[in-house]
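Researcher: Structure prediction, please.
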Amino acid sequence: MSTPYKLAVSSEMVFLELPHIERVRRIHELGFAVEIWDWTKKNAVELVSTGAHFTSMTGYVTGRLADEAGGDELLRTAELSIEFAHKLGNPLLNLHGTGLNDRGLPVQPSYEVTSQMWSQALKTLSRIAQLGAKEGVTFVLENLNLEVDHPGVPFASAKEVIALVREINSPNLKVMLDLYHAQIGEGNLIELVRNSMDVIGEIQVADVPGRCEPGTGEIFYPAIAKVLSDIGYSGIVGLESWAKEGSELALARFRAAFSLTA
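Model: Predicted structure follows.
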């Protein structure tokens, strides 16, 4: 049975024994779209030559939402990211509440969000949405978990991310709803998906615990797949996980979890 949504795979977390460009080719050969992270270390011409369809990439290099100087820096590097995105066919441009280092930890941690920080985040995101409209691209703000992977990141929960994006109310700013992070931080995934369809730009998945592919942990992803089909979600479902027992098996498990059965 065909699915209304499309499947993509992060090239940063599977086939790690291969050079990055070969990972992209392998994912494409297996019939998936491709997601990338830090574009500053990649060659756009080389990526395009693989024939892959790119669905998302990191949409900034440095910057943060919580203060004016950080917002200016986020806008500056978002503009640079757009130049690269245009070469790849305009994938979604992923944002976080603050810049992350190579271990996923915040460059500038913050353990509470004040009303002033919230107001500044809205100002920055409004500018981001305007930039997206001008350049014909869509930015997505991703929820993260604080308990395991990203302590100290402000504006991390799905609840906060959804509220920020709803307040901006722009087609050029959506939510990157990561269900792995949401399961750790909040749970109740099916209702979370149902109640946020108006702002979802993409859904990312991995299982809990371990951040490996669907079928290796506690989340029953076939139930989520059915809900996505029932509510008419036609966007991207992206696998952003480690491979528990080999990358080809991980991708097969991902496809099986999101293949609707009659």
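Model: The CA atoms of residues 243 and 249 lie 8 Å apart.
Researcher: Thanks, that helps.
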